[in-house]
Every structure is written in C-alpha cells, then in structure tokens.
Write a structure and sequence with these properties.
homotetramer; mainly alpha; Arc Repressor Mutant, subunit A; Tetracycline Repressor, domain 2; 12 helices; elongated; disordered N terminus; DNA-binding
Chain lengths: ~220, ~220, ~220, ~220
DNA sequence: AATGAATGAGGGTTCATTCAT
DNA sequence: AATGAATGAACCCTCATTCAT
C-alpha cells in the first residue's frame, strides 16, 4: 500500500488536514498562515479543504480540539496505572505524561492556544472546560490524596496545580518559539528540565521535617 | 499654548505609539493588528506613525526593545539593594522585581516575544542577547553565591534559572491570554502565584537536612 | 456551453490583459495607471490579474515583450519577400512594414519604451537586444547591399539606420501623444508622412549624379 | 558671493525649483517623482515649494513653459542672422539651433511633453500654440522661401517641416531614455546624427537635375 | 518667507472564500 | 469528491497637500 494510495483514502483527509494545519499555523502564526499552504502541506487543493472545514477559524478550533481533546483522559489513565505514594505518581506518571506531550506534535498546540485564545472565545471556552478544569481536577485530586495521607505538605492545591502545569506549558511554548530558533542556550535541555521540574516540585511538597531548618525559607515579601 | 501642546505631543509621539502598539498587538495579535488601529489608539493618523517608524515590523521590534531593553538592569539594581542571604534576595528582591514586571505593561511583551520570535530573527537575537543571557547571568550569580555559601543545595544552576524564570514568563502570558478572557479560574490569582512560586522555589533549594527525609523524593522516571 | 465560455476566456486571459494593459498604460501613463483599471478593461477582477502576472511591473514588461517580441522578425520576412533593388525594398517592404506597425496597437508600445526605459533596466536590456540590435542589423544589411551594388551613396550605415528609424518611432510617439489630443495639425497626416519620409530617405541615398549639382548641399556648420 | 548666499536669494527660487523639477521629473517620470525630491534638489523644504507653485501639476506646466517658452524666438533670431541661400540657413542656422537645444537641459522637456501631453490638456494647448505652430511657421517660411527661389524642390512644406523636426525631437527623447542607460550603441552619436540629418534633409530638398537619374527613386508603395 | 509635522485619500498586493466544472 | 480559477474586501504603505509656528 503506497503512500500515494494512503494519501487518497478519504477517511484520512481530516487527520491529514489537521496535521498540516498545526504545522503551518505554528510555523507562520495563525493569522499569517495561508489556507493554501495548509492544503498544499496536506496534499490536497484549497477547495478540498473547504469540503472538510467551513473556514480557517473552524480549522484552528478543530486542530486544538483534536490534539487537546483527550490529553486529560490520557493523563488520567496514566495516573490510574500507578497507585503508589503520591510523590511517585507525580514523579513517574505525571512526568511521563508531560514527557510524552512535549515530544509529540501536541506540544505545538499550546502555542496556538496561548496566541489565539483571546481572539476566539470558543477556543477559550473549550480550553477551560475540556482541558483546564479537568486537568485541575485530575492533578488536584492527586495532591489532595497526598496531603490527606500526609505525604505532602498542606499546600494550596489550586496554586500548586498551576505551579506544576504552567512551567510545562511554558516548556512547550519555548520549544516552538525560541527553541525553534536558537539551540545553544544552556539550561533548557527540555528533558532535563522536566526531570528537574518534577523533582523540585516534589521536593517543595515534602513535609517539613521538624526542627529549625523550616525557618530557612523566608516569607516572600514583595511590598 | 498650542505651541506647547504640539511640542509636548511631538516629543511624546514615540512613546505614545509604542504604548498603543503594545496594546493593539497583544489585543489582536501582531499579524491581525491594523497599523491604523495603532495610530488611532495613539491619537494620531496612520501617516504620522510612518514618520516615526518605517513600518509595522519595525514598530514591533521597537516595542519589544523599549519594554524589555532595561528589564534586566532594573533587576540587577533590585538585587544589588539587598545583600542578605541568597534565599532572602530570591524571595524579596527577585520576587518584587517580577511582581513589578507582572503588574506593568511589560508583562504583555512576553506575549509578543513568544508569538513572533520565530518570524523575526532580529527579535530572537535581541531577546537572547539582551534579555535571556544577561538574565541568566544575573540570576545564575545569585544561585551560585547561595550554593557557595551553603545556603542552597548544589543544583544545576542553569536549569534552576529556567525553573525560576519560565513560570514567571508563563504567568505573564497567562495574564494576556486566558487571564484576559476568564477571571474565575481558581488558583491563578497571580500575586498569590508569585508568592507561592518563589516560596516553593526557595524551599526546593534548601539544603536537605540530614536524616531519612531526603529519601522521600523519588527519582523522576519517565522511561 | 459555459464550460466552453470559461475555457475560451481562460486561455485568452493573458492576451486580454496585455491588450488592456497597453491601452491603460498609454492612456494614463504607467505610473499613474491603476491595476484595477487594467483588470476592469480586460473584463476581470483585480485579483485575477495577479493570477497571470506577478505585479504591475511584470505586466509592463510583458506588454512590451509581447508587442515588440517579433516585430523585427516580421520585418525580416517582409524584406525577404522582395529581392529587387535596395531602393525598392526600402520604399516598398520597409515602408509597408512600418505602415503596419504604425496602424497596429504596437505603435503605442514605443510610448511605453521611451517613457519607462530609464526606470526598468530589464526593459532597456530587452529593447536593446531584441529590437534595436536586430533591427540595426536588418536595415543595415539592406543599406550595405545597396551601397555595394552602387545603388546607394556610400553613407555611414549606422547613422542612416537611425535616420530611417527614429522618425518612424517618433511618429508612433506622436500618434499617442499630441496626435491623440489635437487632430487638426497640418503636415502630420501620418501615412502621408510615412510616404514622404521614405521617399526623402531614398532620395538622400541616391548616388550623386556627376556634375556641379553635387556642390549644392552645404556642409552642416554648427560651430 | 558664496553658493550658499546665492542659494538664499529669493529671486532665484523659482528658477532653482524649475531646474530641480526638470531633473527629477525626467529622472523618475512625472507621476513617480516626489515633490519632496524636487524641493530637496532645489535646496528648500517641501513647504517652500508650495509658496511658489500651487501644486505638482502647476510645477510641471511651469517647467515646460519655462524651457520651451522662447525656444522658437531663439530660432527665429538665429535664422535672421543669416540671409544666404535657404540650404545654408538650414544647414547652419537651423542645425546650430537644434545643436544648442540638444546640448541644453531643454532637451529633457521634450520627454515631459511627449509623456504627459495626454494627461494635461493645458500642456497640449501651450505646446501647440507656443511651440508647434510658431515653429511650423518659422521653418515653413524658410522652406517656402527656398522653393520660391528655386533652391528647393517643390515639396509639401508642412510634411517637410515635420521631417526636419520630428527626428530632432526624437533625438532629445533618445538622449533621456535609452541614451541615459546604454552608451555603446553605434550610430547615434548625437552630434554626428544632427549633421547627418540636416545634410540628408538638404540633399532630399535639392532640385532634381534633369536626366534619367530622377527615375531612380521608386514611389513608396505600402499597399 | 520658511519650515516640517501631520494628514488621509489612494493604490498595489494578498488571500479567504466561492463555485462552475 | 475534487479542483483551481475567480473574486473583492482588507491592509500596508506612499505622498501630495495643508497649516501652525
């Protein structure tokens, strides 16, 4: 079964278009990307694209939904496979989960989400309901379990979720912005960063051992 | 009186235009932003804009350079004011520095940098040479000092710099993407996040007290 | 039927556009002509024009190349048809050739060439290599033949070529400048002028009959 | 009296502006020329130009009127100085007259006249009434005198005037179009051309000596 | 008289979308 | 279903002209 033949399978069109769209949108930026380029990358004509998606905006939404639609479910499954101590789920399941996302084309969609969220309310809505909230619940539950069991300090769960997630999102953005231009910056070898991040996070969640060492962390004073 | 008005306005044109440009570029996205809108926001006509900047691209570069040009120097000065323990500089000077950035319009430029870096090599070069590298040096020096004095664990300095900085950048991006659309997400009240972030970071840098608790952090296993 | 219509139109687009472009460019002047006008004259929309030519400049070059591309070859063929005395080739073939050019839309391209040559080096190059030089060779050969056979005086060939050609070019320019505005000027009824011009030229080429009449032409004294 | 000082003399402004305008208009083409460039070439600001001429069009008309306004009168004076045989006036006075025009900046105005005549009816009117018609009268009178005296053949006067004038105008156009780009074309060394042209013209005007040689010029047959 | 900052209409070009085939 | 020619609205940029100083 040749590539050409596979290209001709109608059932593959939507996926091909989404893949092409993601690549072109991230490469050029959504507004600057040309529908024609997406079609060409997908190996079809411009008119064909419009048979599958009603317009450029709809294509963007479809790309985001396609790549982010079940990311949380995948994470949930990953978490479920391991029922050990919360810190281990964090450092194994969750880290592996993000590691996979970072390595996949899905990492690029965060670029689109962050860049285009403001201009497409439907994307914002989708992202909040389908990604942010379920993700918050999933990771929040892990944290709560750890806290309840005394494995973690009694931190603010929501804030800690963001502390875990935002750097990972940022890493994805970095991969597709500065990381795509400059490769010799020390310190952001991404996989090392992921390891470092989860380790630090886990460390910051460790219960403070009794003793004077707890006093070493000064309160953050910004005023 | 009208002389005064004109002269006063004249000398302020560049600043007015940069402020307007930042707002419009972030609001609409650079590619989708109309030069006309920038001019109107600045209270001048389209033609006037071209008296000060040779084109839309140049305006983008000027915006980024204007708002990020001395951000690091400001941080260095902030750091210099406080010569106490490294953890205190971290939780006071550095936290306050980012707090200020986050509260200022400069927070929005990170949106532009991340979104447009790929399409403008000159912006990438500016950002690396004028922001990333000096910033890395500034914060890296603080960490090295802390490590040398035994106030911090012997972490990888460059990775830790990114762990400190990337979440703050992400917070700025968040402010101007999802944060500009949805306000009722629990957990990312930004200033609380800043406090939380620096506290966690400081905690993760604390030397591990002797004893069995050190074993509590499992190694990150992604494979 | 509509297929036929569309297809027929499609294949004729380039020619339609070139015709329209020539008319509009000469009518308004190239710089002042609007691409939109060209498209409208050709019966298509502005966007369509850009499917066939990458821009206004390219359209100008295409117009000139289209109308002047084989003008010399046509002349050569005309000359070849008649192998009589050189003076007869001059007064029949060459005169008829220019008569045809003058009556055709091609006469207008000289207006474009003369007006725009300086601003488009590629047009200058094309004109020199494809029109001036071959034309000089074609007419020069005719003159040389006449001189060798003793039918013409021993004139400077290159200068005589220009004496033959420049007035004809000027007549074309006149047709599309003053001739297009004012019609009641005595003496430039163009076809009479063509007759007169070739007759005078032939007369000036006649060998001087022996005798005192040769002394009648005074030397040109400009200093 | 320094150049700077002379530049500052108000009475010189109009002339300076006209000189600058001629140069810029011919260099860039009228429509593509920028008023700003004209002002800069004249050593004044754009606003100053508008103190002397109400607009770009008016400037064009002024340039043409300035350089062509007394060209015919100059010719008339030149003709008047010499009252010998008509052929000598032709080859001396008239040739010298055109020689001077060709060498002066005035040669460039023919470029403007030919290019812009159609778009400015007032220029056409000026040109016809102030240049073409008086010139036709001046040269026509010379020819008529020569014919009456039997020094010239009984040619069509008006047609012969154009045969004399059009090549000279064309030479001026050539100087500022192809001649300004390419310098190594054989045969159009302008002053040689002028000599050749007037000599040929005089020769073609010579009365035909009795005898069989008159039959040598074939009638022009274009149909 | 001279300046030059400001304006805004105008035009070249692009590209999302449509639709006849 | 697939194509790609055609459209025309939209946008960046230029530059003739104005006018306050």
């Amino acid at each position: 079964m040749s590539t050409t033949l596979r290209r001709r399978l109608k059932s593959e069109r939507p996926r091909q278009l989404l893949e092409a769209a993601l690549e072109v949108f991230v490469d050029k930026g959504f507004a600057a990307a040309r529908v024609d380029d997406v079609a060409t990358h997908a190996g079809v004509s411009k008119g064909t694209l419009y048979l599958y998606y009603p317009g450029k905006d709809a294509l963007l939404k479809a790309v985001i939904a396609h790549y982010l639609g079940n990311a949380i479910a995948v994470g949930a499954e990953e978490f479920g496979r391991h029922d050990g101590p919360a810190a281990e789920v964090l450092c194994n399941s969750m880290a592996r989960w993000w590691w996979t996302i970072f390595d996949s084309p899905a990492s690029a969609v965060f670029m689109l989400v962050v860049s285009e969220l403001r201009h497409f309310p439907e994307i914002a809505e989708f992202y909040v309901h389908e990604v942010v909230e379920p993700g918050q619940r999933l990771i929040g539950d892990l944290l709560r379990r750890g806290i309840e069991r005394g494995e973690f300090r009694d931190v603010d769960v929501n804030e800690t979720v963001y502390s875990l997630v935002l750097p990972m999102v940022m890493l994805c953005l970095h991969k597709h912005s500065l990381g795509a231009c400059v490769t010799d910056l020390p310190g952001v070898e991404p996989h090392a960063f992921i390891r470092h991040h989860f380790e630090s996070a886990a460390r910051a969640l460790m219960p403070v051992p009794a003793g004077p060492s707890a006093a070493q962390v000064p309160p953050v004073q910004v005023r």
